[in-house]
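Example 3.2
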Amino acid sequence: MTIGGGRIGIRAIQGAGLLLLAGVLGWRVLVNGLADHYAGQETPEAAIGALRWRGDQPVALYQQGMALSASEPAEAERLLRAAAWANPTDALVYLALAGQWARTGRQAMAVKLVEIADALGPLRSPALARSAEFWLGQERPDRALARWRVLLRTRPETAAQLFPLLLQLAENPATQPLLQPLLADPPEWWDRFFAHAATKAIQPETVVFLYQSRNRQGALPVADEQRAYLDRLWKENRWFEAYLAWLNGLDERQTKVLGNVYNGSFEELVTHAGFDWRFSSPRGATVEILETYGARGDKALHVSFNGERVRFQHVFQHLFLDGGRYRLQGRARPDGLKSERGLRWRVRCFGTNTVLAESEPFLGSDEWRSFAVDFVIPDRGCAAQLLRLELDGRVELDFEALGGAWFDDLAIIRQE
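Structure, written as tokens:
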């Protein structure tokens, strides 16, 4: 054979080898691609299909192991071990295998596996959730809480599942200390959790603990937090605590309009919370605080009606007064108000229909004039009271009103 012919033969052999290698690699890519495709469907049937193409496909091994964990625990453990061998960096595999071991009494080995999983996948949401579940089952709520904190920060939608678990920690005096780091430096989701706790806590003392233990760095409670707290105290009829909490939430300017009636001059911004004014504008009526002539300050309360029928009781304030003799007083200016029986200010014991005080009716048109009425709050059975502006009436036609009225300088004065 000539030298040239030898070279041609060698090149032919090399070309054939390259073609064979390319074919093998192509087949391998195809097999891996099909196996990964089936595994990505995340169903037991697809996992079986993936393993037919590639027996060591780690995701398929994990899925099949999870599918058999209850019915065939021994086979499930074999598959999970194979998955860990095929991909030793998947935290979910270690967590699943740890669950198998924990159920069969191999607690120490299971703990070691979960510690490995925590080191591998601290930011993966499924791994965090399963790790937290494991540690909770091991009576290590501290470790579970650490993972819940990350989940609530990275996956806010998990709040529906995690807030009830956090509340269990808050309601147990033995686990309350675990919440101290959160109370000392509340995360951004804490206010949402507190609103959940204020509504759902079995014992009101849990809500008191969460509210009073929070470090606010010298700042006042935010409005939503205070409102949720006061609403729970309201529900429990814990009026003294509610009043103190509301007082402690007032800023320097708000404390200047304190009295038996808060902000009776209507000069401060109304918060609609606590023992402040609360009002709304139902159909047929409008409630506003506006500037007008004759007001002692800059503003006064204005209520107007458009002629429709409305059972108006939509301006009110909760009071916290001791038993004794009082005088309700203020100034009023009816402004073309047409109604059968007019508007009246009334005071009641909260939660009852018994009227303690009732002002004169306000009708027609007039200049600013003062009004006053004396009344008595009983020593018992009247821990809190309600001051409310009402359209007086007995039958439906009485509640048709047109025109308006102004009010200013509302006050309740204790009589010696």
